[in-house]
Amino acid sequence: MKNILLILTSSIFFVSACNPLTNKKEDNNSSLSILAIVAGSGSAVTEIPFQLVVGSETSYECNKLVAGHSEKHISESSNFYLKDARLYVHDVKLVKADGTTTDFTLSNDGVWQNGTVALLDFENATGDCVGGTTATNTSLKGFGTAGNYIGVEFKVGVPTALNNLTATSASAPLNSTAMYWSWTSGYKFLKLEWKTTDGVGATGTFHLGGVTCTGSGVTSNLSCSLPNIPTVRVTTTGAVTWSPTAKPVYLDVKALVNGTNTNVAAGGASLTCMSGNATAACKKLLNNVGVNEADGKTLTTQSAFYLKP
């Protein structure tokens, strides 16, 4: 029986390995289903939920005011509204207590995931999020072998080799024109936009993406002197076993915009950061999401993501 399982697993790996990075990976879902049977039902990790939060406000969404003082100030504002919140994720791994990892293989649903990259979309086109999409996606689907895990690791962004594809011709989820930088021929890895209504009001825009890149995607070697693709690792406190369904990954908007001020009534102003790493407006935002503004590489710390306590 062990030999049969070994042969079956090896065969699945061989088929998957033959697919190039840009393939649609039509066989991905069937492979994952077979792997789930091999690993045993009910014990594998098949979904990793994410949740958009704003400090202590854990049910945040478009068209919802975050008002208050002290601990609830967001970008120094007590009148904060979301306009957009989306990000690409890839290279997902489950973290063990000893620090080692196990791959979480993304499935291919033809909409939000292509087997390599996933798009998380928290906006729903209501209120100030008008112009977005009514459909949302707040979890990663795929397969991770059964085991005791304390957290998850993932990269925010699009793999460099795919970053120069064209949104108008690429397959989902890389066909989102709202997540494409037409002016620099690459994708917005993370897109956060907001407005504040203190005083005359102001807006904030943070678009994370690779800059100063050369090459043309999959047709030649692409490289970016500032890749801006942070590796994020979030784990439980005290190495307690992690249950993905009980403890989703939080993306905290308050923590992400910490250090900015878009409250005009408090001396602030509208803010725009489009991965201009050298600008003062970008430094705090990049650091908060785990990017070193000097070289575009991953910092040892980040504050925007954490597991639900």
Automatic annotation (TrEMBL):
Signal sequence segment: 1-17
Keyword set, alphabetical order: Signal
Superkingdom, taxonomy of origin: Bacteria
A Pfam family reported for this protein in Swiss-Prot or TrEMBL: MbnP
Segments forming domain Copper-binding protein MbnP-like: 47-265
Protein name: Metallo-mystery pair system four-Cys motif protein
Native organism: Leptospira ognonensis
Taxon lineage: Bacteria, Pseudomonadati, Spirochaetota, Spirochaetia, Leptospirales
